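<context>
A single protein, sequence plus fold
<entry> Chain with its tokenised backbone below
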Amino acid sequence: MEVKLKYRGREVTDEDITFIQKLIAQHPGASRRALSKLLCEAWKWRQANGQLRDMVCRSLMLQLHRAGHIELPSVRCVPRNNVIARRKPERVLVDRTPLRTSLKEIQPLEILQVRRTREEAYYDGLIEEYHYLGYTRPVGEHLKYLVVTSNRPVACMAWGSAPRHLGPRDRFIGWSGEARRRNIRYLAYNTRFLILPWVEVPHLASHLLGRMARVLSADWERLYNHPIYYLETFVDPRRFRGTCYLAANWIALGPTTGIGHNSRTNKPIHPKKEVLGYPLRKDFRELLAAS
């Protein structure tokens, strides 16, 4: 059976195309959005939290439409461009008095998961103003953390869905392509780590990484109904050395290629970054390599 298209781990065959064509014919008044939901339900194509993979399915159907394999109904409405219309997080009031002390003196530290809470906008504002990359809206599964001492913020951290392809990590885990597609959801990527610029506390960063390793999986499971077995991040060697990660026993796995997932050639289009990983369980390879 000939495979016509591969998309996000799904192989689309001639038989699949015939099924989609019949699905469209059986629902002549359905919109593209409605058809993608019907196809998700027929294929039992769901995320780990049970939600339909509607956006992924819609993109797949659009590719089939553009390739001439199916004929989708006309577009009924054009959604606004969220990249253009989205407002930046508002500036927040924060105590900028220099905090130069020891880790012991600022205990106890509270690590607050603020995703879907009233404090999320406050976190967003801090990242926008004080992180060198600024704030970008996360895509996929993600959590946000605010670290406070005596009701005063000292740090922010964010974790999101891991990149699908990452050579140093994939070789370190030793999983197959099929196992990676099935189990990539059990990885979390440290997308943002900010110690506020007026905070100078030795060993704070590595201490927070150690604390996060103990709580992240349980927090993730509460929101997304599955645990995390492995953490990873990138470090830009032009700016940082990754000292706090190494001090927290993260493992340096090697550089990225710089090619990027959107590149149409094998030539680097991004600066190379160092890949670091941190297994949360001793049996992480057995868990992640299972297909």
